[in-house]
């Protein structure tokens, strides 16, 4: 059985990275407990990959502290910068980064041979890890004859065979088709849990983040906007920017009109429409947004003779797409809002052009600032 080195915690304090005058990472603070998976989630250019490369030692931070297992591998004040090959960190890249002229076995064995380990130990470790990642029957295949999913397994096996205490993933599934991506996502999580390897996974895909993470750190413009477990960050985003990243596709600017026994009355900008929310508005000044997930809207055909209850939009279906487990609708309301709806029951007879009504419960309307106070 493959022996796994004890996992190490990760602690990042005040991390800052500049490229010339451009600040890519602004004072990031992150802690990852031993054996847990942190997912850095955010759009391209938000600083998530730069943060991960600093952990690996592929980038030298401008300021800050990085500790692995309680030991500093970078400290700008103490002038510590441990080389990449002494950090015991493995990395799986988006582009696979495997040797095309080598077989699967040669690719996986390469880092062990660079360490000049005994041949018998190399063969034993390679054979075991190929079995674990499901590549045993491809051991003698050339890398160029493999599919994208198989090449990504080779890259993963090559990192795991080194028995790293920390494993880093740089959007490793983004080049794969949707079905294979979903399958490998489950395999990655199982292997990470089985080996108890502290991991950092970079992605811009919120579904990927939610399914993989013990903790998610949402990043934008080089800053961590919120770091929480997946359930907390999904149910209680601190800001509309975070809500947008984790699936609240309906985000309406507006202002609090009044509060009462039934909740907070929120008036949407540029229309006379009002939504009621049971959630208190955020403190302080600045813009406020009503945020609603697509799956929290109820949709049905609209008939003019029906009474309209509160929190109900009237509009016209502009698109309807059957997605298998749900139908995705887009509706333009009579008050000007464009609203996305996921209907997870039997498909409705609502083709584009159909009049529709959308209702959302007050408990499903979050009132959030653009950015959290922190």
Describe it for me?
With 374 residues, the chain is α+β, with helices and mostly antiparallel strands. It has two domains: 10-235, P-loop containing nucleotide triphosphate hydrolases (Rossmann fold); 242-369, Beta Barrel (OB fold (Dihydrolipoamide Acetyltransferase, E2P)), CATH 2.40.50.140. It contains eight helices and 21 strands. It has helices at residues 48-56, 104-114, 119-132, 148-160, 178-195, 206-212, 230-235, 240-245, and strands spanning 10-19, 22-32, 37-41, 63-68, 71-75, 80-81, 89-92, 166-170, 198-203, 215-220, 223-228, 250-260, 263-268, 274-277, 288-292, 297-301, 312-322, 327-333, 338-343, 355-360, 366-369. The strands form four sheets. A six-stranded mixed beta sheet has the order 7-8-9-3-10-11, with helices on both faces. Helix 2 packs parallel to helix 4 (148-160).
Order of helical and strand elements? EEEHEEEEHHHEHEHEEHHEEEEEEEEEE
Strands, total number: 21
Biggest sheet strand order reads 7-8-9-3-10-11
**CATH evolutionary superfamily of the largest domain:** P-loop containing nucleotide triphosphate hydrolases
CATH 2nd-level architecture of the largest domain: 3-Layer(aba) Sandwich
Shape: globular
Number of domains: 2
Task: Evaluate the radius of gyration.
Answer: 25 Å
* Contiguous helical run count: 8
Helical percentage:
10-25%
Say what the CATH topology of the largest domain is.
Answer: Rossmann fold
Largest sheet: 6 strands, mixed
Query: What is the straight-line distance between the termini?
Result: 46 Å
């Amino acid at each position: 059985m493959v022996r796994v080195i004890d996992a190490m915690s990760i602690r990042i304090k005040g991390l800052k990275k500049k490229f010339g005058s451009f600040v890519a990472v602004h004072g990031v603070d992150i802690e990852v407990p031993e054996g847990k998976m942190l997912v850095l989630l955010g759009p391209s250019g938000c600083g998530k990959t730069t943060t991960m490369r600093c952990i690996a030692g592929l980038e030298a931070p401008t300021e800050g502290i990085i500790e692995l297992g309680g030991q500093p591998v970078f400290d700008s004040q103490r002038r510590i910068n441990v080389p990449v090959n002494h950090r015991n960190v493995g990395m799986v890249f988006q582009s696979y980064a495997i040797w095309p002229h080598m077989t699967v076995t040669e690719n996986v064995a390469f880092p062990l041979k660079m360490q000049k380990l005994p041949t018998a130990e190399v063969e034993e470790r390679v054979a075991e890890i190929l079995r674990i990642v499901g590549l045993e029957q491809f051991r003698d295949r050339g890398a160029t004859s493999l599919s994208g999913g198989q090449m990504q397994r080779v890259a993963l096996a090559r990192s795991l065979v080194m028995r790293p205490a920390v494993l880093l993933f740089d959007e490793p599934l983004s080049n794969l088709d949707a079905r294979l991506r979903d399958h490998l996502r489950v395999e990655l999580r199982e292997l990470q849990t089985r080996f108890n390897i502290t991991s950092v996974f970079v992605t811009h895909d919120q579904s990927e983040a939610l399914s993989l993470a013990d903790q998610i750190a949402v990043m934008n413009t080089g800053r961590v906007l919120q770091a929480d477990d997946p359930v907390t960050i999904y149910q209680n985003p601190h800001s509309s920017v975070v809500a947008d990243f984790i699936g609240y596709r309906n985000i309406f600017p507006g202002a609090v009109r009044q509060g009462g026994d039934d909740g907070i009355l929120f008036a949407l900008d540029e229309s006379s429409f009002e939504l009621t929310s049971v959630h208190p508005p955020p403190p302080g000044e600045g813009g406020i947004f009503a945020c609603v997930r697509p799956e929290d809207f109820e949709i049905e055909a609209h008939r003019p003779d029906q009474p309209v209850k509160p929190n109900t939009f009237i509009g016209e279906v502009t698109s309807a797409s059957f997605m298998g487990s749900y139908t995705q609708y887009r509706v333009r309301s009579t008050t000007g809002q464009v609203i996305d709806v996921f209907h997870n029951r039997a498909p409705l007879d609502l083709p584009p052009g159909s009049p529709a009504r959308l209702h959302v419960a007050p408990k499903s309307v979050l009132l959030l600032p653009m950015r959290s106070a922190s």
